Amino acid sequence: MLMKLFANLCCRGVACCAALLCLAGSVSGQTARTMDFPLITSTPGDEAILRIFFPEKVAPSGMAVVACPGGGYRNLSMENEGYDWAPFFNERGIVFAVLKYRMPRTDRRRPLADAKEALRVLHMYAEGWGVDPDRIGIMGFSAGGHLAATTANRAPRKIRPAFQILFYPVITMDRRFTHMGSHDNLLGKKASRSLEDRYSNELLVTESTPQAFIVFSADDRTVNPLNGSSYHQALQEKGIPSEYHVYPSGGHGWGWYRKSFEWREKVLQDLDGWLRKLEESYAPAR
Prior knowledge:
Blueprint lengths: L1 H9 L3 H14 L6 E5 L10 E5 L10 E5 L17 H5 L4 E6 L9 H15 L11 E6 L1 H12 L8 E5 L12 H8 L5 H6 L12 E7 L8 H12 L4 E6 L16 H18 L5
Parallel strand pairs: 3-4, 3-5, 5-6, 6-7, 7-8
Antiparallel strand pairs: 1-2, 2-4
């Protein structure tokens, strides 16, 4: 499989050559289970990178997930809402890819462009990486949840995710309910109502929006849980499967490493159960 991957990467230009060198270095003795893949959407001094974690101890399930860490479209919680989740998914045979996406700064299109390119990469190398193109999903936390949901609704059909996993996501840009830091960093403080509507995912749901797993804590004071309930309702109204969990406490941003989060094991059990049902719903991987 590696030789076939090397040949494919060599045809993809400078960015993919960098990924090839990373993989080759890992095979020679550092780690054979991860690869950093620079994306062609990168701009000078502002790289978008996909770090991919491959299952080692279990057979690939054919599934893959692109994770978008949160950070209010200002910075990224790469470990707690990204890399630290890799063992959970790899142990289930799922290829797990964490996206270091560019911040909007003066161009709100940047994060979405990076997320779509990450999906294109997984589709492009699906066969060599043991991934079924029809079983690639997207995951996001907080503002990264907004990016994940936006990608789920706006990506081209040929690369649109098959499912979405959203942890305490910013869904809307409606000033009454959104996280204003994410709003301002993405759209600007003077964004028009029409622009806000274009980035409010509860308004973007169609029959082709993928199914969702959504979680919140009831006492989240950073992102209003109404973001989750409004999206869940919009999905249900279109007949799209959606599982929505609200845990009694926990606040915001608990991600992976907040061991004091009382409902942590319940969250993992619920996610594991949902993933199992999702896997059972698929035909065998190609």
